[in-house]
C-alpha cells in the first residue's frame, strides 16, 4: 500500500495497473468485494450495476477486466460516492463507469426499470441488534443493515436487472438460507453457488457466492470450493492471489 494524500491511502490491484483510493479510517473494501467482482461473468457490451458501491472497487475491477462493458455504481454515503467518482477518474474509466449518489431503496428515481444486463452486490452482513457495531459511522453503515436490509437490496437488484439478467451476491455462508429465500422472493432464481472456505479442511464455509437469474428456471449448480488461504494460519492461496494480479 502506498500512502495517499490527506485522509486517504491508495491500494493497487493487477500489479499496480488499477488504483483504488480508500479512507484510512472509514470503510475499506475486503476480499469479499474482490470475490464478487470476479464471480459475475458478463458478456461483451453488457451493462452492469454495483449496488452500494462504496469506494467503487467492484465497478473498477469489472471495467478493468472486461473492456467492453459499461458499469454504474450507486452509493448512499456521499463521501464514499465522491471517493468512488475520484477513483473512476484516476483510473481513466470515466467513459465506461459512472457513479450515482443516492438511496437504492428509490432506484426508480435514478434509472428505468430493467435497464441493466447484470447486477452485483456486496451487502452489509450485520443484522440489526446483533454483533458489535463499529463506532466509525461509515464502517457501521457499510457493514450493518442500518440504511438498507437484504430485501431492500434485492428489490433494487430485481428492479434494475432485465428479464433473464444475472444478479451476483456475496454473503455469509451462515445466512445462505435467508439469502436464497430472499432472492426467490424477488423472482431471482439461484443458478450458481460457490462456497468460500478459509483454508482446505476448514470445518465450514465462511462465505457463499451466488448468481441468480431473474425469472430463471429452478436449477442450481454448486461449484467447487474457493479457499482464501493455502492452509490454516498460512499465506493466501494461489487462487486468491490470482484475483489481485
CATH architecture annotation name = 3-Layer(aba) Sandwich
CATH homologous superfamily classification: Vaccinia Virus protein VP39
Under CATH at level 1, the class stands as Alpha Beta
What string, H for helix and E for strand, traces the elements in order? EEEHEHEHEEHHEHEEEEH
Helix content: 25-40%
Number of helices: 7
Question: How many structural domains are formed by the residues?
Answer: 1
CATH topology: Rossmann fold
Radius of gyration from the alpha-carbon trace, in angstroms: 17 Å
Spatial gap, N to C terminus? 15 Å
The SS-based structural class is alpha/beta
Sheet with most strands: 9 strands, mixed
How much of the residues is beta strand, in percent?
25-35%
Q: Which regions have little confidence, pLDDT < 50, spanning 5+ residues? A: 1-6
Approximate shape: globular
Q: How many strands?
A: 12
- Give the integer mean of the pLDDT values: 90
List the main descriptive attributes of the protein structure presented here.
245 residues; alpha/beta; Rossmann fold; nine-stranded mixed beta sheet; three-stranded antiparallel beta sheet; 7 helices; globular
